[in-house]
Structure to design on (552 residues):
């Protein structure tokens, strides 16, 4: 961490100002999250008189009932399945396409690349109705593929760009040497480019995974059987069912975001770098 | 192939469908020309959605980005706990919009939520902010800032690390004050990051949907509608394919115009 704002030693005044401002903002960020987690331990009456403080009596059953039911786990597994398949398809397809763009000169390559980059320009929502009709006519409505395929397709623009920029920065000599040794494009791709591309594979995977894990509008439109719902849909249904029984809803919210929070704190460096650097590089 | 079938074709079809009145079954046959667009622009809810998207962009750019920059500047100091603060500030960004929306729905709840408790403590009548036509949009804006400032802050932290310290030291030797250093040295050097950050804020604001649905669903009486929630409410749930596609076309034109225009004018040197 370099000090970019002041070359001189900080005064105590500045120090206090910094800590007070930063702590205030941190509190505004954390209070909604902490009260949500604590609220899950309260009874409804307790929540009504005391939404801020510690529970007057810790009600574990709110959490335990959800954890011992199958609803929560089913939703998490649905989300996990959709996200993992989306990531694998996105990485394989976009890496191969980007490899071609980076190394093979063919007629219309630039035009084709620009064609993919159009996809970066507009959100999936603009075409959601025709997309729905297409998925319906393909018979994929209410299947995981109806969610996965459009997700992969809309992720391609960004991931192809990230992969291509990375592949192009791999030393050209490597390619020539391999070529002289009789290594073809396909072997070069699998044995040289991909093993050297771990950083960019992880960036693309993180962006795609987070996007898919959190996505709401696409499954909302494509799925209509509740047992297939990923968690963002499931949580909305749960909230609709339990309405003002906020203590249950809060426990459910806490459990659904818990994996995200844990993974974020464990792998924070990779996730922050993936989500921000990914945005900047493209 | 995949890309053509699921990205480009649907966009083209949206343009085609937008000229028809169609419930999505059979083939679109009832050609109505630009009628859908006329209906759209005479629709009060859609006008409100356009205005709201405009407000969201303004607030994101004029409030959220300065806040993010201010925090990034503070976190550039060599003080203990910097890493922890960065983590906390970035945390809302990794949470799903739906979860964040529901959490804030609880915060704003007039019976069980934090607002109810604060109002009770102050001895004033509990405001039901999300049910109030004039307040709901501000409540939504606060959640948007809460959710996304961490992302912009991280962009600025990355940008600040690239700022050459010796330039700042030179400015200091020349007697520049803290503000002058910021205004005439740091900010210009951060130019490309600021432009990038604005670009993301604008594009993100235009597609806002997931956060609105759990908070207000576009209500009360359409006061927090955005273009995408409007598309969902009027196009998808009622299967008015023509009208919904027309919204898609309008959104597409706005996105592409902004993206191209912005890149051409502001980002050509980056």
């Amino acid at each position: 961490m370099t000090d970019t704002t002041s070359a001189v030693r900080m005064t105590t005044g500045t120090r206090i100002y910094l800590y007070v401002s930063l702590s205030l903002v941190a509190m505004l960020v954390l209070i909604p999250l902490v009260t949500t987690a604590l609220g899950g331990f309260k009874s409804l009456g307790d929540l009504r008189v005391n939404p801020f403080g510690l529970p007057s009596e810790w009600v574990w059953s709110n959490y335990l009932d959800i954890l011992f039911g199958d609803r929560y786990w089913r939703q998490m597994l649905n989300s996990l399945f959709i996200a993992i398949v989306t990531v694998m398809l996105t990485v394989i397809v976009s890496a191969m396409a980007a490899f071609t763009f980076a190394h093979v000169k063919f007629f219309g390559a630039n035009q084709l690349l620009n064609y993919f980059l159009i996809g970066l320009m507009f959100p999936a929502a603009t075409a959601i109705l025709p997309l729905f009709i297409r998925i319906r006519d393909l018979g994929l409505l209410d299947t995981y593929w109806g969610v996965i395929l459009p997700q992969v397709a809309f992720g391609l623009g960004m991931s192809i760009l990230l992969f291509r920029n990375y592949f192009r920065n791999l030393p050209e000599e490597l390619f020539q040497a391999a070529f002289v040794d009789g290594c073809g494009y396909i072997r070069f791709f699998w044995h040289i480019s991909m093993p050297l591309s771990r950083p960019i594979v992880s960036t693309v995977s993180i962006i795609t995974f987070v996007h898919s894990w959190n996505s709401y509008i696409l499954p909302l439109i494509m799925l209509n059987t509740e047992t297939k719902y990923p968690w963002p849909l499931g949580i909305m249904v749960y909230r609709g069912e339990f309405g003002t029984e906020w203590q249950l809803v809060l426990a459910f919210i806490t459990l659904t975001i818990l994996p995200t929070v844990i993974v974020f704190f464990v792998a924070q460096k990779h996730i922050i770098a993936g989500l921000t650097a990914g945005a900047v590089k493209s | 192939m995949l890309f053509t079938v699921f990205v480009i074709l649907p966009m083209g079809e949206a343009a085609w469908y937008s000229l028809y009145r169609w419930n999505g079954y059979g083939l679109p046959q009832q050609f109505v020309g630009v009628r859908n667009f006329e209906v759209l622009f005479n629709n009060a809810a859609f006008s409100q959605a356009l205005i709201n998207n405009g407000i969201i962009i303004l607030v994101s750019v004029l409030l959220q980005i300065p806040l993010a920059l201010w925090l990034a500047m503070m976190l550039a100091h060599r003080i203990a706990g910097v890493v922890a603060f960065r983590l906390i500030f970035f945390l809302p960004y990794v949470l799903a919009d739906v979860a964040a929306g529901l959490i804030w729905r609880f915060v704003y709840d007039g019976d069980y939520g934090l607002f109810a408790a604060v109002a009770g403590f102050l001895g004033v009548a509990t405001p039901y902010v999300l049910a109030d036509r004039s307040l709901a949009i501000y409540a939504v804006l606060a959640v948007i800032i809460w959710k996304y400032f961490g992302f912009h802050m991280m962009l600025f932290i990355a940008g600040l690390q690239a700022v050459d310290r010796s330039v700042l030291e030179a400015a200091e030797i020349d007697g520049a004050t803290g503000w002058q250093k910021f205004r005439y040295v740091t900010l210009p050097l951060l130019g490309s990051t600021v432009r990038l950050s604005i670009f993301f804020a604008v594009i993100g604001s235009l597609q806002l949907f997931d956060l609105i649905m759990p908070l207000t669903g576009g209500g009360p009486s359409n006061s927090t509608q955005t273009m995408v929630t409007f598309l969902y409410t009027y196009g998808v749930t009622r299967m008015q394919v023509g009208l919904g596609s027309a919204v898609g076309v309008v959104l597409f034109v706005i996105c592409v115009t902004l993206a191209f225009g912005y890149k051409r004018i502001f980002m050509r040197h980056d």
About this structure: The first helix of chain A runs from residue 12 to 39. Chain A has two domains: 12-59, 70-242. The CA atoms of residues 142 and 219 of chain A lie 9 Å apart. The two ends of chain A are 25 Å apart (CA to CA).
